[in-house]
């Protein structure tokens, strides 16, 4: 049996098999986002709907609304009273908290409230109908049912395989008038594909029926932009499951087994006019599934993972660069020479006279070395970046920098390579006094560059990179480089993963200091615990007359393990002022003092904005890794000193590493499989 599928993934497989493939294999969003919809509107709506449901069931003021006889109650009046109460109790405090720190979100919150009003109206109508069949004290509990929403079921497939599917439905209601128990799914947009929605709610109903033994209807409430309601009877749902779901699950297993170079890839969506323009992974899909290209990313597995480095055809080949295909067939040295000659010719056409002085070849790019003629200013070459981008057909401006005796120009390789984790990192027997080093990436000489966490310049790290930059794979390879070389007795790991997709394979490993943290409350708790642990260790050092963990462990009968905290997507916890302040203060204390205590921080975000990565954070995290950023401003925040080059990196693990005043361009490692045994 293959890895379990969520109900959402099954729905996506009906909508677009290729989006399902990319999301299941490599992560990333699988939610189509209609134009005009804010990115987070769905998440916020679902959270508020759950909270409203809870308040209605537990606050006696709502029960009091239904004391009158049912025939005297009006839906609009009851709905207005429920809206007023929920606005005062829940929504207004929530609104105030958000707009204090993010006033730009007011419009999104207004949309959410409009959608919520439609949902409250529907609840009011159902509660009044059910009031005919039960008392005012019972009607809410017997209508808005409090049942654990998690369901799962193992399906038997036509080929004899089995497939586990699991999910979490939004709510469960009971309609006395129609004697109907109904699973409800909320949507914050008008459904593009009704058949896919039917498949989703059919799975929820079928799995819940298998769990509790009662036939269950389903409904889809589309709350934005206008209220729409789809209802399905149990007969429709059962027929859908039996006729469609096993065959679809069998197809999904076959799609996931597909690898680049094999025939019959996952098919395109049957409705490109509905989905392609609002697809969250449109660019990756176009690059990955074109007939002339293959993955070029450290995020994308290679066809033969046993090879240490595998050559891949470029995914960013463009019609503006027709020579790319022929150049890619040449040896790397021949490629470099051809590209160097073309670069010299192009610069000379601008009146900038230079000579080709050779090249260095990295996995993702070729660094061409140019020597300006006498009288040619380096600044003239630096200013030619955008002109070169146009003339050479590059996706991003090339990085140009003065070096000792030459000027370097970094050009993307037509046959970009992947730096395999297995080639550079091998399992080692744990040594008691081994230094704690993390893998950063491969340099121009093909050597692995590591950072020693005991070094004051690299004891804590700030990592930034936008979607598609390879940040998640970088963090995973960094983590693997630690646990492959240190035992659980020597090293403890703290993982904070609010998006819940970066570290799923590591949730049961023995190196964990605490369970993986996935929400803001526990993030504050774990950072506070680390501060307390630091203080406790310094008290032990003082008693033992030791200055740091190294000298303490050399003397102690029971050495203390080093602790590395990897905090992914820090920006997710910065929207609320209280949480931001608490985390900042903990990071400030740990950043200033924790190195000697053997506690190290690696803080990562895909939104390195000034309001997220504040001066307090930057000043206490000396080591910096910038993958491709969304803007030059974001690059400067990560690297400091007005360093904007990260905005023009190639993505897919191409990164800039800064330690002290040195800035190096590296390719991060890619682990095609993870073995914690």
Structure description:
The chain is an alpha/beta fold and 677 residues long. It has four domains: 5-32 and 145-255, no CATH class; 41-143, no CATH class; 324-417, 2-Layer Sandwich (Threonyl-tRNA Synthetase, Chain A, domain 2); 460-622, P-loop containing nucleotide triphosphate hydrolases (Rossmann fold, 3-Layer(aba) Sandwich). The strands form six sheets. It has a seven-stranded mixed sheet, sandwiched between helices. Helix 1 (7-15) crosses helix 2 (17-26) and helix 1 runs antiparallel to helix 8 (194-212). The model is unreliable at 291-323 (pLDDT under 50).
Highest-level CATH class of the largest domain: Alpha Beta
Number of domains: 4
What fold name stands as the CATH topology of the largest domain? Rossmann fold
Instruction: Tell me the overall shape.
Output: globular
- The CATH homologous superfamily name of the largest domain equals P-loop containing nucleotide triphosphate hydrolases
Q: Given the structure, what is the number of helices?
A: 22
The SS-based structural class is alpha/beta
Architecture per CATH nomenclature, i.e. the level-2 architecture of the largest domain = 3-Layer(aba) Sandwich
Helicity range of the residues? 25-40%
Report strand %: 15-25%
Low-confidence stretches: 291-323
Main sheet specs:
7 strands, mixed
Mean pLDDT: 86
Q: What is the strand tally?
A: 22
Distance between the termini: 21 Å
Strand order of the largest sheet: 17-18-19-16-20-21-22
Please tell me how large the radius of gyration is.
28 Å
């Amino acid at each position: 049996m293959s890895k379990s599928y969520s109900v959402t993934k099954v729905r996506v497989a009906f909508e677009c098999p290729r989006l399902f493939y990319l999301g299941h294999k490599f992560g990333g969003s699988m939610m189509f986002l209609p134009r005009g919809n804010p990115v987070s509107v769905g998440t916020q709506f679902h959270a508020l709907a759950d909270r409203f449901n809870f308040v209605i069931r537990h606050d006696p003021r709502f029960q009091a609304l239904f004391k009158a006889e049912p025939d005297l109650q009006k839906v609009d009046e009851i709905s207005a009273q429920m809206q007023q109460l929920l606005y005062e109790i829940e929504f207004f405090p929530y609104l105030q908290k958000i707009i204090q720190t993010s006033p730009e979100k007011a419009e999104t919150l207004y949309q959410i409230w409009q959608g919520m009003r439609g949902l409250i109206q529907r609840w009011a109508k159902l509660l009044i109908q059910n009031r005919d069949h039960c008392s005012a004290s019972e009607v809410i509990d017997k209508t808005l049912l409090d049942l654990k929403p998690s369901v799962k079921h193992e399906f038997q497939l036509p080929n004899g395989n089995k497939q586990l599917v699991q999910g979490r439905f939004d709510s469960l209601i009971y309609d006395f008038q129609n004697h109907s128990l109904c699973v409800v799914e909320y949507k914050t947009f008008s459904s593009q594909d009704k058949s896919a929605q039917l498949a989703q709610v059919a799975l929820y109903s079928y799995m819940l029926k298998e769990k509790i033994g009662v036939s269950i209807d389903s409904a889809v409430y589309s709350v934005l932009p206008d209220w729409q309601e789809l209802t399905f009877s149990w007969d429709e749902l059962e027929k859908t499951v039996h006729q469609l779901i096993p065959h679809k699950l069998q197809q999904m297993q076959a799609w996931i087994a597909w690898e680049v170079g094999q025939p019959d890839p996952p098919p395109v969506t049957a409705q490109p006019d509905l989905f392609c323009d609002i697809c969250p992974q449109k660019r990756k899909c176009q690059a990955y599934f074109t007939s002339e290209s293959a993955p070029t990313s450290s995020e994308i597995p290679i066809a033969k993972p046993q090879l240490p480095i595998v050559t891949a055809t470029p995914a960013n080949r463009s019609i503006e660069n027709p020579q790319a295909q022929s150049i890619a067939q040449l040896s790397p040295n021949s490629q470099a020479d051809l590209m160097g000659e073309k670069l010299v010719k192009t610069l000379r056409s601008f009146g900038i006279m230079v000579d080709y002085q050779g090249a260095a070849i990295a996995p993702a790019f070729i660094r061409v070395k140019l020597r300006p003629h006498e009288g040619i200013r380096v600044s003239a070459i630096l200013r030619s970046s955008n002109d070169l981008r146009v003339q050479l057909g590059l996706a991003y401006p090339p990085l140009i920098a003065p070096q000792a005796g030459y000027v370097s120009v970094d050009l993307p390789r037509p046959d970009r390579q992947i730096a395999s984790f297995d080639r550079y990192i091998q399992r080692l027997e744990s040594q008691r006094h081994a230094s704690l080093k993390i893998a950063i990436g491969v340099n121009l000489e093909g050597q692995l560059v590591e950072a020693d966490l005991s070094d004051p310049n690299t004891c804590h790290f700030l990592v930034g990179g936008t979607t598609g930059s390879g940040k998640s794979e970088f963090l995973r390879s960094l983590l693997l480089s630690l646990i492959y070389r240190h035992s659980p007795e020597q090293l403890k790991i703290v993982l904070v993963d609010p998006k819940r997709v970066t570290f799923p394979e590591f949730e049961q490993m023995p190196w964990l200091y605490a369970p993986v943290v996935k929400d803001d409350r526990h993030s504050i708790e774990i950072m506070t615990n680390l501060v307390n642990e630091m203080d406790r260790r310094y008290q032990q050092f003082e008693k033992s007359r030791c200055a740091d963990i190294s000298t303490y462990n050399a003397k102690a009968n029971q050495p203390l393990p080093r602790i590395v905290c990897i905090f992914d997507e820090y920006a997710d916890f910065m929207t609320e002022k209280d949480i931001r302040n608490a985390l900042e203060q903990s990071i400030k204390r740990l950043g200033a003092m924790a190195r000697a205590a053997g506690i190290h921080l690696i803080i990562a975000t895909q939104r390195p904005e000034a309001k997220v990565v504040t001066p307090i954070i930057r000043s206490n995290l000396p080591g910096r890794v910038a993958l491709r950023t969304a803007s030059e401003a974001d690059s400067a925040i990560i690297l400091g000193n007005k360093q904007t080059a990260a905005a023009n990196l190639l993505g897919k693990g191409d990164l800039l590493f800064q330690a002290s005043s040195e800035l190096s361009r590296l390719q991060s490692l890619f682990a095609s499989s993870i073995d914690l045994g």
